Predict the structure of Phosphotriesterase-related protein.
Amino acid sequence: MEYIPTATGFIEPRELGRTLVHEHVFVLGEEYRLNYQQDWDEEEKVADARRQLSELHQLGIDTILDPTVLGLGRYVPRIQRIAEGLDLNIVLATGLYTYRDIPLQFHHQGPGLLFDVPEPLTELFIRDLTEGIADTGVRAAFLKCAIEEPGLTPGVERAMRAVGQASAQTGAPITVHTNPHTESGLVAQRVLAEEGVDLSKVIIGHSGDSTDLGYLTKLADAGSLLGMDRFGLDVLLPFEQRIDTIVALVERGYSEKITISHDASCFIDWFDPQARAQAAPKWNYRHISEDVIPTLKDRGVSESDLNTILVENPRRYFE
């Protein structure tokens, strides 16, 4: 991309700076919120998000990629309000997040279905990338799909192929939520390649939950970037093992295939906030700047390698 759309305008790839490639601002169910979340205070939530993101920028991060798409509560007007006046770039995505089924809005329409029309998901994704999301004027810059423990269900495959088709037609890069313990990243690579996707433009998300260097290097050797992107979720894999895996990959010459992030958010309605804070006290935007980068340096990862991971790899993802 010559220019990358953000929540507040367009930037050149070189302006991304230090980038965390997988951070949500809000993850929630809007329908649930409207009907049941009686304690919701919009102004308070927006102000708190601005505070957290301002703090992240002060810690040396210039850009976050926000892969919040259909199924995760994407609401761009709220993101625009949060982003206004911030020095941090927020880059938005389009796509569909599902582990099993297609939403009912698409269940009966599509190729070979009751209403036999071209894939509507592909059309929506391309519109978000080329014209803008809803009537906000904000364009998506990348695509998102998911494949979890249930595997390549018919709904997951349909969403993934629609994402692949949109990428092949527009050149937009992709992030895939995967479960490394089922090696679903390899399945995603196969399906996306069948749709004509350039695998060097694909981040295999949540690869950092694995210590299996054989699996990780196989993904990287096929061209994709590794999303070592759940720092702070020590309940899924301890901090030391996440660090060990990155150090081992760097030592094997895979710096150009590594991206890092937290997969954190300013607000998420999946968990009770107090229980979340108790179970994962480091799962926040500060952890990489305050803990991960210093530890990687102590373990011998050079400034050059860190610049490759944080700056050059995200830039090449879009270029």
